[in-house]
Write a structure and sequence with these properties.
This protein has 354 residues and is an alpha/beta fold. It has two domains: 160 residues, 3-Layer(aba) Sandwich (Rossmann fold); 180 residues, Dihydrodipicolinate Reductase, domain 2, CATH 3.30.360.10. It contains 14 helices and 13 strands. The strands form three sheets. The chain has a six-stranded mixed β-sheet. It has a five-stranded parallel β-sheet with strand order 2-1-3-4-5, sandwiched between helices. Strands 7-8 form a two-stranded antiparallel ribbon. Strand 4, helix 7 and strand 5 form a beta-alpha-beta unit. Helix 8 crosses helix 10. It is globular, with a radius of gyration of 19 Å. The relative contact order is 0.15.
């Protein structure tokens, strides 16, 4: 059986270039179209994307010519799967048109994350939420959209999912987010040296809503948000990649540090059971050292190979009464963006949705 032809929208950006890297030699998908902004149309990926050049991609990919993100042209080319990393204001209507034409859209954009018929999928945690795709078929008329979460949220839910069985009542988050999370138009590294920005517009609300949706339950053809409070404070720091999360959860039932460590260490899900190509063997890596995780040392956890950057690393585990505390690190461009979306597509393929 041949590979599934796919298109990447927003291929020149930080996340788009990671889509290209994850898919250029994928065993199931074949890149047929690279689409970018009006300014990049007609140029090669090599010329249009500094981010792609830094990833040491083969010449055949770097010399591919960029085209506009035209839904009609994509459908006419016989593309059945699209990976989208365009800005949310641009992505929304294009993704809708593609889904209405029968295309499976895997989106890193935020345009559709809160639509009631669109799952925010983290395959180890909420694969049952793919049940929403039955509703999507009637809404879109054949295709569907699956979103991955905001990059920060992906680390939060991975670290919190093993605690759900003890009854989470409240989660407090302080995130220290890398420059690449702001994209190519974010603050320049030179401007951030020796500095921290204490606010990231819209981020704290995204983390709250998405965490509750992802950790919620799928019943009666709908997702019911998790019944606890989430409070987040998100700041930008001068590291290149990797979001560091300081997490505190208030829980209902008693557990000790050994219970916590064991639950995190043993946590796996459907991607590991199915052996999906981009799934890490362990989605959570537990570090015993007091000074871990660190972006410099733990960013690429989950690898080597295709799953590099797909594991969330946790450390500094503490249980104090009904409070559980830990520090987590997530690769914001891999597990938190392109890699997470590719894993979503792999799960959809394994479940025969594509």
């Amino acid at each position: 059986m041949g590979k599934i032809p796919c298109a990447i929208l927003g291929a020149t950006g930080m996340v788009g270039s990671r889509f290209v890297h994850a898919l250029h030699d994928h065993p199931w998908f074949s890149i047929e179209i690279l689409a970018g902004s009006e300014g990049s149309t007609g140029s090669t990926l090599r010329k249009a994307s500094v981010a792609a050049r830094d990833l040491h991609l083969p010449n055949s990919i770097l010399d591919a010519v960029m085209v506009p993100p035209d839904p009609d042209a994509i459908v006419e080319a016989g593309i059945g799967v699209v990976f989208s990393s365009m800005p949310a204001d641009v992505a929304g209507p294009i993704e809708t048109r593609l889904a209405q034409a029968g295309v499976a859209v895997f989106s890193n954009a935020g345009s559709h994350r809160y639509d009631p018929h669109v799952p925010i999928l983290v395959p180890e945690i909420n694969p049952t939420h793919m049940g929403l795709l039955g509703e999507a078929e009637s809404v879109f008329g054949g295709g569907f959209i699956i979103c991955n979460s905001n990059c920060t949220t992906s680390g939060v839910v991975m670290a919190m999912a093993p605690l759900v069985k003890w009854g989470i009542e409240e989660v407090n988050i302080a995130s220290y987010q890398a420059l690449s999370g702001a994209g190519l138009k974010g603050p320049a590294a030179i401007d951030m040296m020796g500095n921290v920005l204490p606010h990231i517009s819209g981020e704290e609300g995204k983390v709250r809503v998405e965490t509750l949706k992802i950790l919620g339950s799928f019943k009666d053809r709908d997702v019911h948000p998790a019944p606890f409070d989430v409070h987040a404070t998100c700041v930008r720091v001068p590291t290149a990649h990797g979001h560091l999360l300081v997490l505190q959860a208030r829980i209902r039932d008693e557990l000790d540090e050994q219970d916590l460590r064991r639950a995190l260490h043993n946590f796996t899900g459907v991607p590991q059971q199915l052996g999906l190509p981009t799934a890490p063997g362990k989605p959570i890596i537990v570090r015993p050292e007091d000074d871990r995780p660190q972006p410099r040392l733990d960013l690429n956890a989950g690898g080597p190979g295709r799953a590099e950057g797909m594991a969330v690393t946790v450390g500094r585990l503490r249980v104090e009464g009904d409070r559980v505390r830990m520090v987590a690190l997530v690769h914001n461009l891999m597990r938190g963006a392109a890699g997470g979306s590719v894993l979503n597509a792999e799960l959809a393929h394994a479940y025969k949705y594509i």
